[in-house]
């Protein structure tokens, strides 16, 4: 039997954000995933593999090669693929483009939380960071909030303007503080190690969606923002002790673990009162890659 390879363009045309978030929600009704990460290094290059097994859904290994010298040669710095295996007999079912899975997993992770935690009448959505993830977030959030207007802020104004030029419902923010204060939803995907989003800028009713930080020394929101918010995460296992957004204030005693309300294995707890400030930390994780890959393969088979 020929094992399918699902390319970015082929898969991207088959998917929708509502369907994916429904799939992620259903995936968390299954037993908690077993996950494991491995890193191999050849300075300055890295091979990262993230594996997950969910009883009833199968197994996935997502491998990424990070070669910092590639852009100077005109090739992408990050490449890779996802191998998806059968839960019944362990056979290889598909190989899926790394960038396809990453795009839909990363934004879909945040969108599931927004469906539960953001006010349904949210109208002004601020995207912080005009990179690849920012573009996917714009595409996803406008599906959930079709009447919303978007604001983009980026450290490099020219990059923000370039994004706004291809998004007719978007304006460029010059002042991040004012943009945060004006927004109903703030979704941030930067590589910042110093907090960009300040708690003093927040107001009741907002939803804050933090994506960028993935290392113990990285965070996008300060202690005041964390203290002002009801915090939710996608997975306790991949966020609390691993990502600075939560790890740093926990270790400093600024918050306790009880301050984190729930992860996706308790979706029923993802609720809000109208004046709550909700904060979701998107930590990713191989289990979400597995759920997303299974969704992609199911859509590919059903076309």
Features:
303 residues; alpha/beta; ornithine cyclodeaminase, domain 1; Rossmann fold; 2 domains; eight-stranded parallel beta sheet; six-stranded mixed beta sheet; globular
Model description:
- Strands 9-8-7-10-11-14-12-13 form an 8-stranded parallel beta sheet, sandwiched between helices.
- It folds into 2 domains: 5-102 and 287-302, ornithine cyclodeaminase, domain 1; 117-284, NAD(P)-binding Rossmann-like Domain (Rossmann fold), CATH 3.40.50.720.
- The chain has helices at residues 8-12, 17-27, 98-117, 132-144, 157-165, 176-182, 223-228, 236-239, 244-251, 286-302, and strands at residues 5-6, 34-42, 45-54, 58-66, 78-85, 92-97, 124-128, 149-153, 170-172, 185-188, 207-210, 230-233, 260-262, 278-281.
- It has 303 residues and is an alpha/beta fold.
- 33% of the residues lie in helices and 25% in strands.
- The mean pLDDT is 96.
- It is built from 10 helices and 14 strands.
- Helix 5 links the parallel strand 8 and strand 9 (170-172).
